[in-house]
């Protein structure tokens, strides 16, 4: 364990990824999960998955399942949290779903109320807004200190017994002071306390707000480092105030810079996939996704680019996490995927592309020699797994048809003779399969026999093999085709003459 990363009060590196299950897993979120995992594993610590589902209107079971599936697909395995199969709690600090921890938050709120550090507030939103406007007009601080902040707990409880509803607010310090945060990515950040008015901890229906749950959970789950997205930096002041009120040890914070599109805007769907699920469906490999995401804001000490998860874990230190926004370069991601894909043994590549070929309804030979040979031929042309569909389609006999583009070939006078010669020579071939050299030899023989060359020679042969005069390289395809299938195709092409 490299204990140097720990501050006093923490005996082990414990980090968490804390998604709100309100949609799909965005690659930005997955990058936060990955950085947490890399940091935890590099320091022999624990990686925790916590589900922040107190926003009951927006949280769904379906989204939770999807997020878990995506994290599993990426292989970002957590040590504690919902069990990836059963979703039952796994680890000593559960429940790991905030909706199951409401009594815990209530207890902390009660303690703060009893200590006079929090109070019941009866201001309505409309009243609050009027106060805010008044303060603004007077050019004063922009926050509201509630008139109920000094009401005794007993009086407030009486009011509530009389049927009035109240929120619970934290009584923020009214002396002017700074809250200083040393963010391990962004450096020193100063928050003046008057940035914040008395803020809500529990809503009037008793539901706790994000900042409150987050601090309580991070404390109770003994989180040593909070590594999360930059957009949460403004929340940190409220969180520091809650730590202070509870007199709890503050973990170290690091806020990861935004992931940007190539036009340096926040990564959005307009430019292409942003959900992990979509990248999986498009045929990206988890290993490539992890490699690519790791380099969105971190770099290897030797500037190595193609890295396995293990290599990333070994090399991951926070001092190499950059503060600049990271650009999501989709061209680079494709390239990286191709590198990871081509580095796999052919059998493994086949296993990866097979579901895509099945999904596309392709009927292809089932013998493993053929499969391995076809991968050897095609892998140089594949960047994502889905590319296999277009590459393998010409090999499915049931998909062979004479396409409208073929009319260009049929309009040429020598086509019939070339097709006939082609068919005859293929039939005369002594073995059931063809090498590239066999194919080139037969092509030369057709040329000699018919006296045709160039377009007049190549167009009909292409039509006889792939149904159109342009496209796929024949010398690559033919060695993957069976003699009887080539003959049957040639016959179909001839019938069209
Ligand atoms: N639930 C928050 C989110 O999904 C996480 C906040 C945090 O990591 O503190 O953005």
Q: Please, could you describe this protein's structure?
A:
- With 497 residues, the protein is mostly helical.
- The chain has four domains: 102-256, Rossmann fold (3-Layer(aba) Sandwich), CATH 3.40.50; 269-342, Glutamyl-trna Synthetase, Domain 2 (Glutamyl-tRNA Synthetase, domain 2, Orthogonal Bundle), CATH 1.10.1160; 345-397, Helicase, Ruva Protein, domain 3 (Orthogonal Bundle); 400-497, Arc Repressor Mutant, subunit A, CATH 1.10.10.350.
- 44% of the residues lie in helices and 10% in strands.
- It is built from 20 helices and 13 strands.
- The strands form six sheets. Strands 5-6-9 form a three-stranded antiparallel β-sheet.
- Strand 3 (81-82) and strand 4 form a beta hairpin.
- Helix 12 (346-359) crosses helix 13 (368-378) and helix 16 packs across helix 17 (436-450).
- The N and C termini lie far apart (76 Å).
- The model has no long low-confidence stretch (mean pLDDT 95).
- The structure holds glutamic acid.
- Residues 18-20, 52, 214, 228, 232 line the site of glutamic acid.
Summarize this structure briefly.
The protein is 44% helix and 10% strand. The chain has helices spanning 27-42, 61-74, 102-114, 125-137, 153-161, 210-220, 235-246, 276-281, 286-294, 309-315, 330-342, 346-359, 368-378, 387-392, 407-410, 415-428, 436-450, 454-466, 474-477, 483-495, and strands spanning 14-17, 46-49, 81-82, 89-90, 118-121, 167-170, 178-183, 187-192, 200-202, 225-229, 252-256, 259-260, 326-327.
Which strand order do you get reading across the main beta sheet? 5-6-9
Tally of separate domains: 4
In CATH, what is the homologous superfamily of the largest domain? Answer: HUPs
Sheet with most strands: 3 strands, antiparallel
Uncertain parts = none
How many individual helices? 20
How many angstroms separate the termini? Answer: 76 Å
């Amino acid at each position: 364990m490299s204990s140097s990363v720990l501050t006093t009060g923490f005996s082990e590196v414990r980090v968490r990824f804390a998604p709100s299950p309100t949609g799909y897993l965005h690659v930005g979120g997955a990058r936060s999960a990955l950085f947490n995992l890399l940091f935890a594993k590099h320091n022999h610590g624990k990686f925790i998955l916590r589900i922040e589902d107190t926003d009951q209107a927006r949280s769904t079971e379906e989204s939770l399942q999807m997020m878990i599936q995506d994290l599993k697909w990426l292989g970002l395995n957590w040590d504690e949290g919902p069990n990836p199969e059963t979703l039952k709690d796994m680890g000593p600090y559960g429940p790991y779903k905030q909706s199951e921890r409401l009594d815990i938050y209530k207890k902390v709120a009660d303690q703060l109320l009893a200590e006079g550090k929090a109070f019941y507030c009866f201001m309505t939103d409309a009243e609050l807004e009027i106060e805010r406007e008044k303060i603004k007009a007077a050019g004063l601080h922009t926050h509201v200190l509630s008139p109920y902040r000094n009401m005794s707990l007993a009086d407030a409880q009486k009011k509530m017994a009389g049927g009035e509803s109240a929120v619970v607010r934290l009584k923020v310090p009214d002396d002017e002071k700074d809250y200083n945060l040393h963010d391990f990515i962004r450096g020193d950040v100063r928050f003046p306390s008057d940035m914040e008015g008395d803020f809500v901890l529990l809503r009037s229906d008793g539901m706790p707000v994000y900042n409150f749950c987050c601090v309580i959970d991070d404390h109770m789950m003994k989180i040593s480092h909070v590594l999360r997205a930059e957009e949460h930096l403004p929340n940190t002041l409220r969180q520091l105030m809650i730590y202070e009120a509870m007199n709890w040890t503050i973990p170290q914070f690091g806020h990861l810079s935004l992931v940007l599109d190539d036009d340096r805007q926040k990564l959005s769907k307009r430019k292409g996939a942003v959900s992990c699920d979509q990248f999986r469906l498009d045929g990206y490999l988890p290993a490539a996704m992890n490699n690519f995401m790791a380099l969105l804001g971190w770099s290897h000490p030797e500037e190595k680019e193609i890295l396995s998860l293990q290599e990333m874990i070994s090399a991951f230190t926070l001092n190499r996490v950059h503060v600049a926004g990271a650009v999501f370069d989709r061209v680079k991601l494709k390239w990286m995927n191709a590198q990871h894909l081509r580095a796999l043994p052919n059998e493994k590549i086949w296993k990866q592309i097979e579901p895509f070929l099945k999904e596309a309804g392709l009927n292809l030979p089932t013998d493993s020699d053929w499969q391995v040979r076809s991968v050897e031929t095609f892998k140089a042309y594949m960047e994502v797994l889905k590319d296999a569909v277009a590459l393998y389609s010409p090999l499915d006999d049931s998909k062979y048809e004479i396409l409208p583009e073929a009319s260009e070939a049929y309009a040429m006078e020598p086509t019939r003779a070339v097709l006939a010669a082609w068919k005859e020579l293929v039939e005369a071939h002594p073995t059931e399969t063809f090498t590239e050299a066999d194919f080139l030899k037969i092509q030369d023989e057709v040329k000699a026999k018919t006296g045709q060359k160039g377009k007049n020679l190549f167009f009909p042969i292409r039509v006889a093999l792939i149904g159109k005069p342009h496209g796929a390289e024949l010398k690559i395809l033919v060695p993957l085709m069976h003699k009887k299938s080539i003959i049957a195709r040639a016959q179909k092409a001839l019938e069209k003459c």
